[in-house]
Write a structure and sequence with these properties.
With 91 residues, this protein is of the alpha+beta class. The chain is 29% helix and 19% strand.
């Protein structure tokens, strides 16, 4: 709902406050035009968008997501393969 302009990766994003698009353009862009509250946006070290996950995420699932992206498993295997690999190895 912020109305400030935000510059991110040399692009300026604004909130036009249009009835059909009431949210800030940056939030919409980061969620790949699928803005849902809440959403988790995952960026890499270079601030490139890796993934946008809509809806609430519980702590156990969040742990898996943090490991998948934080340990760079996403670069080597699919989410499904990662889940199979880590089945039964959760804290």
């Amino acid at each position: 709902e912020i109305t400030d302009s935000i510059t991110f990766q040399n692009n300026v994003f604004v909130n036009l406050r249009l009835p059909q698009a009431p949210f800030h353009q940056l939030a919409t862009a980061m969620t790949r035009n699928n803005f849902v509250l809440p959403s988790l946006v995952v960026l890499d070290e270079k601030q490139q968008l890796i993934d946008a996950i809509p809806n609430f995420i519980g702590s156990r699932f969040m742990y898996d997501i943090a490991r998948y992206y934080g340990d760079n498993h996403y670069q080597q295997r699919s989410w499904t393969d990662f889940q199979k690999l880590t089945e039964g190895k959760k804290p």
